[in-house]
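Dear colleagues,

As part of the handover before I leave the project, I'm documenting each prediction I ran so the next person doesn't have to rerun anything. This entry is a single chain, and its sequence is reproduced below.
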Amino acid sequence: MNLSLLELLKVVFLGLVEGITEWLPVSSTGHMLLVDEFLRLDASDAFKEMFFVVIQLGAILAVVVLFWNQLWPFARRPEGGVLLKQKTVSLWCKVVVACIPGAVAALLLDDYIDAHLSTPAVIAAALIVYGVGFLVVERWNRSRAPRVGNVEDISYPVALGIGLFQVLSIIPGTSRSGATIIGALILGVARPAAAAFTFHLAVPVMFGLSFLKLVKFGLHFTGQELMILLVGMAVAFAVSMAVIRFLMAYIRKHGFEIFGYYRILLGILILAYFLIL
């Protein structure tokens, strides 16, 4: 079945929202769920539950493209042969350590979260709470210098600590990047290094979550469902390429306060809207 023009426009808009909000610490999943309240896709609830996660693979591929040299652990020797980049291997080991808490939490709580916490009220509360968190942490950081300036200097204990903060992101509206960045800032990591580690951490995390959602949904797609998934991922990829570059340039000169204010404002608007209803 072919997508109608209206459904195609909905998918493009969802891909745009995903590409922007996946990397900014404002909760991509929360935004996707909220957009679906107003622009409902013509698809089953089971498909949409899977789609809102798997579409993030498009955004993740943008990280792979932009950070390929930092992510790929092999290099060619000038005299021939292959060189194993020790710093890259060490970084991947730290990423794996940081993934463990979130992987355990997702396996244990994924079904409960989907059934009970994917609601506008929970999303709004999480947006506000972590928006305040950004403002508090940024104000606190003004009086201290970061202890970790580069992503390669993140230690295993700090990586594990960031991973523990990432567990908070299983609650819709929290933001995976927001939780890990706040955790990294609290642990003394500089903003650019915190963002870079968040991007690295997103690769195995989102591949793992997407695999989990695909297994639960099954690989039996209709033609329309497959088209929705591919178009959404393609748009998310293209938009993410621009957003990642913007964020890395922005945080070299600015803090995360603007995202804190945005989260608080959006959370209040969501609460007001659904209370009125």
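The radius of gyration is 19 Å. The beta strands are 74-76, 82-84.

All the best with the project,
I.
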